[in-house]
């Protein structure tokens, strides 16, 4: 069982997937910071200077706090501002991944277009022999 596990781990696809997950997690943090620290403050300033993360309404009468963290301590809240922030994170991340995939596809197409065409394979021996006989008969 240990040997099978070692074979599984040593395959290239598993290692590529692991690297992709790690880089994706780090990239997700960058996008999260971009949205939370740069984009959402600008959007908040446009919509009245409020922090989008603090857009919520309480689901019980006991919730009367003005910040989301305090409201969650008081009871259940519907935090739609946080949801909007997460959706914006996703859209930005999806757009960036789309641009990366598009760039890779364009590069592949360009490389295939530049690749010289493979030389035509020589005809099979019987076809070459028949062609030679035909040419000799045509000369007579």
Automatic annotation (TrEMBL):
The chain crosses the membrane at residues 12-31, 77-101. Keywords: Cell inner membrane, Cell membrane, Ion channel, Ion transport, Membrane, Transmembrane, Transmembrane helix, Transport. It is a multi-pass membrane protein. It is found in: Cell inner membrane; Cell membrane. InterPro entries: Mechanosensitive_channel_CS (IPR019823), MS_channel (IPR001185), MSC/AndL (IPR037673), MscL_channel (IPR036019). It holds the Pfam family MscL. Belongs to the MscL family. HAMAP family: MscL. This is Large-conductance mechanosensitive channel. It comes from Mesorhizobium opportunistum. The gene is mscL.
């Amino acid at each position: 069982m240990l040997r099978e596990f070692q074979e599984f781990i040593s395959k290239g696809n598993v290692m590529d997937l692991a690297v992709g997950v790690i880089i994706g997690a780090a990239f997700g943090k960058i996008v999260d910071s971009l949205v939370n620290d740069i984009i959402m403050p600008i959007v908040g300033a446009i919509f009245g200077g409020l922090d989008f993360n603090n857009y919520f309404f309480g689901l019980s009468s006991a919730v009367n706090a003005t910040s989301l963290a305090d409201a969650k301590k008081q009871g259940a809240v519907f935090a739609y501002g946080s949801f909007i922030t997460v959706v914006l994170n996703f859209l930005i991340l999806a757009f960036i991944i789309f641009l990366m995939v598009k760039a890779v596809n364009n590069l592949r197409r360009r490389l295939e277009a530049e690749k010289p065409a493979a030389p035509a394979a020589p005809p099979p021996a019987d076809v070459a022999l028949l062609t030679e006989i035909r040419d000799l008969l045509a000369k007579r």
